[in-house]
């Protein structure tokens, strides 16, 4: 038997094949990553409120449903669009559904008894959640390591 030295080079397709055959695509994070289909969100905390912005272009105000229960805020949107194309011999009809649901755990400092202000402008849904009166920011505490 003789040994052949490869001079340190690997075949360029070798890693791709190994990754492909060793990966379980049914439980792979990229396959089931729901974050890719959810709209992006920004959260800003101010002294007396939280401001949440959700990027949801292509919807109308009537398409949104916003609920708050048991410290959970749920924002849903559903839009259906009907397209019709006529030809000499047939009519083709397609329905296109755009929908998402985004839920988030609210901090204890949110006052759920007060109204949430919601506006939708230029594809951005803005929510304003007021804080409880006694929930102002605690001063920063420095802890010494001994």
UniProtKB/TrEMBL annotation:
Q: Which Gene3D superfamilies match?
A: 2.60.40.790
Q: One Pfam family this chain carries?
A: HSP20
Which residue range or ranges hold the SHSP domain? Answer: 32-146
Q: Which domain of life is it from?
A: Bacteria
Which InterPro entries does this UniProt record tie to the protein?
A-crystallin/Hsp20_dom, HSP20-like_chaperone, Small_HSP
| N-terminal signal peptide | none
For this chain, the family text in UniProt reads: Belongs to the small heat shock protein (HSP20) family.
Q: State the PANTHER family in the record.
A: HEAT-SHOCK PROTEIN 20 FAMILY MEMBER (PTHR11527)
Protein name as annotated: Hsp20/alpha crystallin family protein
């Amino acid at each position: 038997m003789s040994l052949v030295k490869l001079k340190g080079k690997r075949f360029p397709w070798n890693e791709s094949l190994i990754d492909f055959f060793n990966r379980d695509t049914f439980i792979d994070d990229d396959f089931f990553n729901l974050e890719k289909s959810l709209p992006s969100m920004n959260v800003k905390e101010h002294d007396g409120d939280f401001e949440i912005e959700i990027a949801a272009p292509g919807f109308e105000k009537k398409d949104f449903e916003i609920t708050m229960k048991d410290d959970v805020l749920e924002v849903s949107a559903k839009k259906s669009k009907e397209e019709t194309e006529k030809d000499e011999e047939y009519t083709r009809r397609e329905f296109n559904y755009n929908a998402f649901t985004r839920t988030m755990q609210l901090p204890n400092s949110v006052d759920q008894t007060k109204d949430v202000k919601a506006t939708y402008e230029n594809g951005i849904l803005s929510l304003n959640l007021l804080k409880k009166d006694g929930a102002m920011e605690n001063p920063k505490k420095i802890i010494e390591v001994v």
